[in-house]
Write a structure and sequence with these properties.
By secondary structure, this protein is α/β, with parallel strands linked by helices. 43% of the residues lie in helices and 16% in strands. The strands form three sheets. A six-stranded parallel sheet has the order 1-11-8-7-5-6. The chain has a three-stranded parallel sheet with strand order 3-2-4, sandwiched between helices. Strands 9-10 form a two-stranded antiparallel sheet. The protein binds NADPH dihydro-nicotinamide-adenine-dinucleotide phosphate.
């Protein structure tokens, strides 16, 4: 069984980016700038934002986090986004989701300048993804493709089964795998006889948010399993796949933690760098 080590792979990418960014700062006189907007007190979001801040600092990206109270009015939040759109020193804007109830996240995402949309969630960038045009790709799915590439796992011609159809993971992952010539099936909570479908998968990606959901009976011998889930349990962070049970059956699997999560952050740095490069060259 091959462990798809996202922590190690991400560290290699981050080291490369750090060197590249140091050179670019010399050439252009300023570091890449990332603005993170965090509204409210959602505990997992606080952790994600702290991890992103640390990764930016380490890579030489100037990150600024705007922490706003949960009762921030929609108009005020939109005003912040517009200010950041106009700022020359900001190359990327990330709105940490989920937003507290009462705030309209899609309206906010729509307002982010597509050229600064480092999460790739703006409808223009989602459309570009669908059309297979260049543009920022959502970090988790793009990180998964980078991880598969790192281990020489080519989706071309393979049956890729995705469980979960969210806008941030399942749907964009389906597009990226399709663009790489995978044969893609997307499953969700209304899918009938899910195990019969996951058992056909050469690559099975699970992103639903239920601890240990994907069991050995649901995959075929020699499959590759990508576990996107992050579930907080009394035993620490757990994925959506039954890692211990699957180990002896699969050809390769991502651990949780240390699999897809670190790749997501590495991809955010990459997207910020790409946005910066495009803007300083303009
Ligand atoms: P969402 O809650 O937005 O979507 C969950 C999806 O899973 C939905 O499409 C839902 O179907 C489907 N689903 C739920 N239950 C079942 C079931 N029993 N059988 C089949 N499908 C089911 O989740 P996200 O995509 O935002 O996140 C999924 C997981 O990935 C979470 O654990 C999250 O924490 C993690 N995550 C990890 C990241 C990382 O960096 N590693 C980044 C982002 C998320 P339906 O559409 O029908 O409701």
């Amino acid at each position: 069984m091959l462990l798809l080590n996202g922590k190690e792979t991400a560290a290699t990418i981050r080291a490369r980016l750090k060197t590249e960014i140091a050179g670019l700062v010399e050439a252009h006189g300023r570091p890449p700038g990332l603005a993170v907007i965090l509204v409210g007190e959602d505990a997992p979001s606080q952790v994600y934002v702290r991890n992103k801040e640390r990764a930016c600092a380490d890579a030489g990206i100037a990150s600024q986090t705007f922490r706003l109270p949960a009762d921030t009015p929609q108009a005020e939040l939109e005003g912040h986004i517009q200010d950041l759109n106009a700022r020359e020193d900001i190359d990327g804007i990330l709105l940490q989701l989920p937003l507290p109830t009462g705030l309209d996240s899609q309206r906010c995402l729509d307002l982010i300048d597509p050229a600064k949309d480092v999460d790739g969630f703006h409808p223009v960038n989602m459309g570009r993804l669908l059309l297979n045009l260049p543009g920022p790709k959502p970090c988790t799915p793009a990180g998964i493709l980078t991880l598969l590439d790192h281990y020489g796992i080519d989706p071309a011609g393979k049956h890729c089964v995705i469980v979960g159809r969210s806008n941030i993971v399942g749907k964009p992952l389906a597009q990226l795998l399709l663009a790489r010539h995978g044969t893609v099936t997307v499953c969700h909570s209304r899918t009938r006889d899910l195990p019969a479908i996951t058992r056909q998968g050469d690559i099975v990606c699970v992103a639903i948010g239920r601890t240990g959901f994907l069991t050995p009976e649901m995959v075929k011998e020699g499959a590759v399993v990508v576990d996107v889930g992050i579930n907080r349990t009394d035993d620490g962070l757990k994925g959506d796949a039954d890692f211990d049970g699957l180990q002896d059956k699969v050809a390769a699997i991502t651990p949780v933690p240390g699999g897809v999560g670190p790749m997501t952050i590495a991809q955010l740095l990459l997207n910020t760098l790409e946005s910066y490069t495009a803007r300083v060259q303009r």
